Amino acid sequence: MLPFFADLVGRTDEARREFETHPVVLDAVANGMSIERYRKLLLELYHVVWHFNPVCAAAASRMPDTHRDVRYFLYEHMHEESGHEVWVMNDLEAVGVSVAATRAHAASPDTLALNGYNYWSADRRHPCSVLGMLYTLEVLASVYGGTFAAAIRESLMLDGERGISFIGSHATMDAEHMVTLREVLNTITDDAARDAVTEATLLNFHHITRIFGAV
Amino acid sequence: MNSDSMARLAALMTRPYKYLRLEWNAELSALRVRTFVKPIQCYSLAGLTEMQRVLDDIAATPGLVRHLVLTSDVTGVFNFGGDLSLFVLLIRARDIESLRMYGRRCVDLVWWLENASSRGVHTTVLVQGDTLGGGLESVMPFHKVIFERSAQAGFPEVLFNLFPGMGAWNFVIRKSGFSVANEMILSGRLYTADQLFRRQLVDVVVEDGEGEAAIDAVIQSVNPRLRGTLAALEGRRMASPITYETLMTIVDKWTETALELTDRDLRLMERLARAQVRKAGGASDGAVAELKRIELDTAWGEERTGITEWAAL
């Protein structure tokens, strides 16, 4: 049997490339973004990051003992990701959005759909689906984060990591996370969990592509 | 053509391809495959799967297809080779199984082409734009390789500490000898169509816009003596054999080497991937322009300061 990580890469490859295909993503990775659009994107990302740990917690609390490795992985991951919404707020401040404005921002329908799906799937579909959310976010960070951060820095003439600390640092950090995530995914052998992770990956790529497309 | 062959041809032509367009010339039994992989014209997993499906369909009905022609429908690009963003993903995840699977699927594709004459199929490829790394490797096993004059090609992998592992050594050595293979693979340089013709890797160079006529000319000249030509090409394979085992051993070495790439190597790979995306987004420059910049950076940097941009990455 193919290790699940390899299977997941293949089953969701087109969704990953659909993300790459989107004209906004193509343009952003190649040429960066205007400051207005970058602000809009970070504001949406703030809501994704803010709900990341609660989704993980919801999944961990429902995880059956048969997947205890996944539950322990989520504990550690939540610990590492704790407080990262502050990085997004700092980046937003660096590009002219106050903390109060960030907290008051209403998420777009696409972001609500993304977060809503992730809560629902952890609750009602299968708790392992949370790994689809993690896989998607870590692919985005480790594969596209570096080039996107560089393009944003150039186009907005930002200084060092100022304004791109969240995206830039996750590009490096998530490379290490990818190794751990692969190991955890390869512990999953039952079809129900595998299908749930695959569905969640496809849905997360779909919604994130729409979030990028709307900024 | 009997009813079974008709049904198989209909199945082949009507599959829902996303990245290929197929045309059938019944008079010549010629199948034309046009590729347009989105967003980047490269060997993505889905693109490879579709291409392999076409080749499997051809193999399932011996005698149905006598001529296979491959071209690109993407202006200015024949094929950028490997899916660089997928490589970055798999290398960062330390996923040797998936990397090996990808490499082996590429080898299966070139191995099918290598065996095309034994299946009664003559193969022709027309390159009208940039073709890099795995894109150039996929061209090498074709029986007739046509380049339009503005097309450029090369094996840039060594620039990011990798090497072309899906047949480049075997096919370049067979066609042009060790010294050309060494020069091309170890330098990472880009070559014009004329330079490749002089190195005997390209059979025909035509002016831009004359590629279609060149395909017709090749098929019209081969078709009346197809059986003899294919038998001769089989003899050529026997005289200079390439084995599946050697191809697989090399691609396994490629897999191990890819896993050893450092962050600096991956950043250079990402720089090329970003240039590919720039071209896919409609810019006039792309990976080829980026490679030229890297070559210039290297030459000027080493001469003037001893520090290259590559070293600075």
Summarize the structure.
The complex is a heterodimer of chains A (215) and B (313). Chain A has 215 residues and is an all-alpha fold.
Q: If you had to describe this structure to a student in words, what would you say it looks like?
A:
The complex is a heterodimer of chains A (215) and B (313). Chain A contains eleven helices and no strands. Chain A starts with a helix and ends with a helix. In chain A, helix 8 (109-125) runs antiparallel to helix 11. Chain A is mainly α and 215 residues long. Chain A has a single domain, classed as Heme oxygenase-like (Heme Oxygenase, Chain A), CATH 1.20.910. Helices cover 81% and strands 0% of the residues of chain A. With 313 residues, chain B is α/β, with parallel strands linked by helices. Chain B folds into two domains: 3-259, 2-enoyl-CoA Hydratase, Chain A, domain 1 (Alpha-Beta Complex), CATH 3.90.226.10; 263-312, no CATH class. A six-stranded mixed β-sheet of chain B has the order 1-2-3-5-7-10, sandwiched between helices. A four-stranded mixed β-sheet of chain B has the order 4-6-8-9. In chain B, a hairpin with a 4-residue loop joins strand 1 and strand 2. The interface between A and B is medium-sized, with 33 and 29 residues.
Sequence-ordered SSE layout with sheet pairings:
The complex is a heterodimer of chains A (215) and B (313).
Chain A: H1 4-11, H2 13-21, H3 23-31, H4 35-62, H5 68-81, H6 84-94, H7 99-104, H8 109-125, H9 130-156, H10 165-185, H11 191-214
Chain B: H1 3-14, E1 20-25, E2 30-35, H2 45-60, E3 67-72, E4 77-79, H3 84-92, H4 96-114, E5 122-127, E6 130-132, H5 134-139, E7 144-148, E8 152-154, H6 168-176, H7 178-187, E9 190-192, H8 193-198, E10 204-206, H9 211-222, H10 226-239, H11 244-259, H12 263-280, H13 287-304, H14 309-312
Parallel strand pairs in B: 2-3, 3-5, 4-6, 5-7, 6-8, 7-10
Antiparallel strand pairs in B: 1-2, 8-9
